[in-house]
Amino acid sequence: MPVHPANAARMVELLSLEQRQGVYQMEVGLTHSSGSARQILIIDEYTYVQLSMLGPFAGQRVRLSLYPKWDPFRRSFFSSLIKMNQTFSETLYYACSEEYASQLVKARQEEERPAGPEPAAQVPSLELPQHRPGHLKRSRSLRPARAILLRGILFSCLIALFLLRMDGKLFSNSAEAHEDPLQAAVAADVSSSPLINVIPVIQTAAYQSSEVPAVPEEAPEDTPEDTPEDTSAAAPETAVEEIELDGNSYEYSLPQGYVALSFDDGPSQYTRQIVDILDEYGVAANFLFIGQNASSRPAEVSYANEHGMPVGSHSWDHSDMTRNSPEENRQNLERASRELESNMNSAVTIFRPPYGAVNDELAAEAKRQHMKLLLWNRDPEDWKADNAPQVLRYFHTTDPSGGIYLLHEKAVTVQALPEIIEYLQAQGLKFAVFK
């Protein structure tokens, strides 16, 4: 069964940010399921200053969110970006103008427009308020001194608001009462469609928004050890469908009614636990293993393979392969596949590039080695979650139908996995794996 392309999401990567002869511009890379392109966007001075204060960006990949928000308390727009390198990922927020927010909304709506004649569930259209406070309109003529002062004040406000929200005591009830129509529309949008993040000639996987309030630390209710049969009895039988990727595009989505789980960065100390939980519920998932990890945990590779879990490559060393030479990538992929296949009874046919970063050269090399690329369109960001409820909250606040979930072999993910599966089964979804 072919993978349905309609929900393919666009990614946007910030490539450069500069001022030329009084014109403020940013070069971005746009990626979707059929390819990638570069584009120059003209932005206002106010947004340029706000973005600049989050730099420098040299040596890092920067993903831009296409979901601006309206802050009803400060009466201004803001958006977010993710700075990434090989060792960490950091989400940062910045204020922006109404014009810039309009550009983001337009870009997203163009991508979300259904590709075929079949009617599809529509994302609520966003009507940007026409009359916003004058300081955003006047900000285009800010002088450097005023811009520096303003960004300092806004930065302080953002930190103060963040700390207060973390405390959970401020705006606990007033936020809904004062919510702006744009904010309400965006909130509905986030819960029903993929969040769009970054990338250019380098292609990255998109994911639905995980910008939901952090769940307070609380111990999940323990299931009594003497009643495990109740849990398994409640879970409906689930057939797992194998899907053959055609290899002609970067696959981001499944047809409605299907869902897929995938686990990156193993094998690890949690591999067997994850496999056992999946087995218990009668489902399966794709495991994308790193060659270096597999060399130190070969038994876990065999264990996953023997229990019917499709094992794919996540490179040898989890480096950003778009920065490598063609020969380095050839050796990297060959070494990883050789290590994995030495502990399996089948060939490696699926490849997920580290960080979701892929260009035409890397895709071509993977194809030469008889591997098809598998990305994702749902990202719970479990790798940075503090507890299982935070991971679970993502599943309960996004539409799982048609989703390919990116998960990692982490303790919090293992804790959340039984409830994740039960929730997806309760939605009547059919689980799928890719081969």
TrEMBL record:
It comes from Paenibacillus phytohabitans. This is Polysaccharide deacetylase family protein. The keyword Metal-binding applies. Residues 107-139, 210-238, 312-331 are annotated as: Disordered. Residues 218-229 have a biased composition (Acidic residues). It comes from the Bacteria. The keyword rRNA processing does not apply. InterPro entries: Glyco_hydro/deAcase_b/a-brl (IPR011330), NODB_dom (IPR002509), Polysacc_deacetylase_ArnD (IPR050248). Residues 315-331 have a biased composition (Basic and acidic residues). The chain crosses the membrane at residues 148-166. Pfam families: Polysacc_deac_1. PANTHER family: CHITIN DEACETYLASE 1-RELATED, GLYCOSYL TRANSFERASE-RELATED.
